[in-house]
Write a structure and sequence with these properties.
5 copies of one chain form a homopentamer. A 5-stranded antiparallel sheet of chain A has the order 1-6-5-4-3. Chain A contains 9 helices and 6 strands; from the N terminus they run ββααββββααααααα. The termini of chain A are far apart. Chain A is of the alpha+beta class. Chains A and E meet through helix 5, helix 8 and helix 9 of A and helix 8 of E.
């Protein structure tokens, strides 16, 4: 139960002991790590900070549990916990919480499982925090889109909402992806009886042999509980994404319906243009420098002006009546 | 078999006995609860009203069944039922039903399973009620959208239907999500023989040891029955959502097709504008203060007016014929 | 082997015997039914006509098989068959078929399984009939949509097809839902060895004890066979729905492409309008009552008229050349 | 090991022997077939040519393997192969191949498995042939759609590609459906140890009793191999369909983007129309037969003409500047 | 442990030995290969370069492991490795890596598993390389699309991004397909205890009999590790594809919203056209060669000109007010 810790360029490592004192920093090479923990290099890569894109994993090996969930990369052993990247802000915030909980905890579980539970609590809280920042932002954009009335459609507020929607949707997708991978990592352990019973590292060391495959009730119940929390985050994000999709879909149809309204209006305006052009042509004809025979008539001006305006009106009504009769437009 | 119940700020609790008398309210702290029921704090969080977002669950522990379904959060034991949040209206309505059924029931099942069945009956009825309020509202909107004739498309009725559709679709999605989670919670129990046989709490207490893994026929049949009800609600809502999607899809295409009709009309109107402008230009030319040599001709006015109108008509027909010949527009 | 049957308001029941004589009608209350068949009330609800929305089910109980598939709601026992809702037209049509087949059948199977096979034959035939009425109607609409040429797009025939498509798509979705649920009900039995071996009710009665879990070859082969028929209906309807989706998708794109063609045309017409208005403005200038100095020129009229028309043509060609040069429009 | 074969109206049958001689045709009724092969009528329906819509199946019965894959409907027994519909062209082409392979094969497998392998080889080759005719046709349409430049969008080539796409997509969907069903049929056998060990018909006849459930290595490896081929066809077709969907999607967006470009252009043209109409109105005002006081001015004509044209230009620039200032259009 | 290798037209083969010396080329016919390795012809087809479209596979046979992953087609045996297509550039690059790793490796694993690990390392690196070239290209296009402001929509940059998007999306789909198939091939082995324990070829040869089904811890951990890498590539590509879909979707809606803005603008322009045409018609009326009685009025010109312009303005405002009053347009 030695308390030690190290931070360096290659692989910064923080070690925590079973006892209550403050963990110290220590620099470990991969080879040291392999020697100390009995893990092979392939396994260590899962917690190596230089492999940033490694996917979340909870791997159970004979003498250690390797955890790579969110910001926490740790190796859990029967008597200590190696926490990597101790300078990362989230990890910095995690260390006092870890110490507090490990000391406070009056649980009957062995050290490695109590440490695992603290890690899971921290990861779940981190996921819930992330979800609770994303959802309201998305909801406000969706509310904005769905409450926009017909009349103000095509306005700036719709545009602004749409401009804000895409990055939010991408953030949701990315977060859902991460939650799904964490979920899969925990589910992989939950669905393997061997893995769960092998997680009692202390018990294996004390008894000297493996536990029976089905002796893992506490681990199973613990994992199931945090699984439920992750499931509920997963459900919430999925539901938000479905709402985004529905809103996008309906917004598109509403924009279409709005466009049809505007197009109807344009048809009226186009008919008006045609009608006025017709009336104008009547006037233009009498403006020709040709003998109409009405040049001296005192009422002709008013008659023809009236005729010109009537042409406008009659054309307008006539075209509409024609379209309605032909069932083309109404 | 003590009858007690309590309501308070921290964790309001209602306790029901096996005997017929009215349950009383009682204030329980989490620690009391853990002591009384033998559950650990992690499990109790599932029924704690302060954790509102916990997902539905039916958890089987050695001395209690923890139920968190819809509005009902309860701990079932061999000789009593702890019902949380007794002041919630749905829970208030549930209490007399619970008492009536527990007394009336002449079933041979032990108390904990009879209580569980009453909870399941209540939850299923609640889900069916919710589904039966959502579906007709959606159906009316969909009927409205799909029955809108071509001629009145782009009208207000389509807009209104679309405005009403989005909140309904979101409500459907949310409800489907809830039903799916309840379904999963019950299915988790149904797919675990250990859980089902461990649900006979009375039998375990009386015999003093666990039941065989496959002794759970009554529980299985009971859960299967309510599972079927939930499945049928799930199916109904899924089918409604599929109908919503189809209607949205086809509505969009119909709006598109309508728009193409209107665009065809606009092309005709544009051709008319071009034609009349051409005819007008003829008249405008003769309106110039220049010598056309026809100034004194007595018939020129009528000839040129006719020419102007003919230009309109010939342009119109000529453009259409040209477009038809070129197979551009017909 | 008593032949009996009953029809009433509460629960209309029809009972069929193993022997060949005509079944009679009988009115049974739920309590009678529970007493006669040894089923509990929860199970009976699956065949109770007053619970219309119950989902399809094949439930195996110790002394009866409960069947709720399509229009057929029946309780099969070792020596009789209770058929509910005997006044329903489909059930009326089923009764003679049932009698004929039960008598004709020279199968070695016990009564309950022969009766089950007759039910499955009837249900499968009903599903195939339904599928064979839906598919051709859909195909005709889809053919209509996909064969509509470009030139007649935006025409009434597309509109009519789209108006007919939505109810057909909804009918397909609803039918697929029903087939899926029937499929699931049968698959639930097929995937449970206990259920299948428990279906040999006669054998259990005669031997006095349960059959071995794996003694169910005839039942399995029988169910698999009808499962295949239902699968083939399911596949056909799914394929039709996929074709509907594809056609909708491509129709939408074709409408879009058509619209782009029409928009191109409108651009030409708009350019023409601009050009002719320019030319008209030239003429209008010379129509002003101002001194142009050309008033007495004998050729000015023709020159300026030509200039006006040239302006039209040059504007038209100039704008097009400009747009082409700028790669905006071609 | 009798070589026989028959073709008739009711059920045309072709029988092949273990020995090398040419198979003969024979007419078999269903009853004969049931008697000869020990199969029940329900099973025979899977190879009965009068049930055209039966879905693909490989059924293992105690004395025969029933195969219905693509065009091949056959009953395989320990000493012969009954091949149905011998007059179908694909089956005609298959018979010599079958004979050649059965004689050439120096495999140690029993007759029924060698025959099954020949059938699988033929079916896989047929599927690969079908896939290799569909894919290039689709690829050429997709290339056409995706390589169409912006400028020629809305052209006939896009329309033609879209017209060709829909039938191809439907053919792909239909073929994928068929491959999936064949895949399922083979997978059903592969996932059942009983079925695979029961396929050694010769061994069962010789030994007189069933094989152990896990004695089926050769069959499993053989089926796995052809499964891989079918998987690869399935993957290819699925990938092609995904490419179709993506191309459709992007094509639609490209059409939209193109439309926006054209609409921008129309805005410019509409602004031009408004501007020229304004300028024309200036000229029209001076064309009124009213006293402007400029009638005798020698330069007024040029001044006002210039003013008219300036009005056009200033309106055009002014409207654009206004829209740009208001951030409405740029 | 003979070191040999061959390259030829029919089937080019490269053989590697357990010992450290350079492998030599050798020409092998299929028959030789079958004789040397004890594999049947069906299995050999998986590594035969002439069957280009074979899907990825890891097949475990009694004396060899057949690997077909990405560019590597190999047969692994207890004492040698046959590597096909040695002239392929990727294979050429692989050979020195293979030699270096096989010699350097101080692992306790037998030769066949060390060789398999080297193959898996190479395949994983190749997939990661491919993913890391695709993702940035896609991201740049997506960033371009999503950052395009409203005002410059319909511009060339959107068009260019869309033109580049389709081939990238197809490349992503194709690559995802390949990764999925490789994933499936490895998962098939991981989910079969028999296959994994049979992979210890050396151990089987030395002991002379099969290993126990559950003796495969090293293989399982090794495969799981590379599975995780492939999973992470799979996740990355899936996430990128989802981002593509979301961006496409939102881009389409943004284009729609933009179009609505432009259409609003067009409505204003159309109203302006109608208004100016109306004003022009007033002027045109007074341009008629008819007696209006105002010919000599000194102020009429200004009055009517003003009236003409006022008509324009009043029409414009009147139409807008009317549309707003009727709630048609605002």
């Amino acid at each position: 139960t030695n308390a030690s810790g190290s931070s360096g360029s290659g692989s910064a490592v923080k070690v925590r002991t079973n006892a209550g004192e403050r963990g110290t920093l220590r620099n470990l090479t991969k080879a040291d790590l392999a020697a100390t923990t009995g893990l092979n290099l392939r396994d260590i890569r899962n917690v190596d900070p230089s492999f940033r894109q490694e996917s979340p994993a909870v791997l159970v090996r004979s003498k250690a549990i390797i955890v790579n969930l969110e910001h926490i990369r740790a190796i859990l052993q029967a008597d200590r916990l190696l926490l990597f990247e101790p300078m990362h802000p989230s990890v910095q915030a995690f260390i006092p919480e870890l110490q507090a909980r490990l000391q406070a905890e009056s649980s009957l579980l062995p050290f490695e499982l109590r440490a695992l539970e603290v890690v899971l609590i921290n990861v779940c809280a981190s996921l819930q925090r992330h979800a609770s920042t994303l959802s309201p932002a998305v909801d406000s954009v969706l509310d904005n889109l769905s409450s926009t009335g017909v009349s103000s459609f095509g306005s700036d507020s719709v545009q602004t909402s749409l401009d804000r929607l895409l990055p939010l949707e991408n953030a949701l997708n990315e977060f859902l992806n991460k939650v799904t991978m964490i979920r899969t990592a925990i589910d992989d352990v939950l669905s393997s009886d061997e893995d769960m019973s092998a997680m009692y590292l202390t018990s294996v060391i004390q008894s000297g042999h493996r536990r029976r495959r089905d002796e893992h009730e506490e681990v199973e119940m613990m994992l199931e509980n945090y699984m439920k929390v992750i499931d509920s985050v997963h459900n919430e994000i999925s539901a938000t994404l479905r709402a985004v999709k529905s809103t996008e879909n309906v917004t598109q149809i509403r924009l279409d319906a709005m466009r049809n309204r505007v197009l109807r209006l344009e048809v009226y305006l186009n008919i008006a243009t045609v009608s006025i052009a017709s009336g104008g042509t009547v006037a233009a004809c009498f403006g020709m420098n040709l003998l109409s025979g009405l040049e001296e008539s005192p009422h002709a001006f008013y008659a023809i002006s009236l005729a010109s305006v009537s042409t406008c009106v009659l054309m307008f009504r006539g075209i509409l009546a024609f379209l309605k009769f032909k069932r083309i437009f109404r």
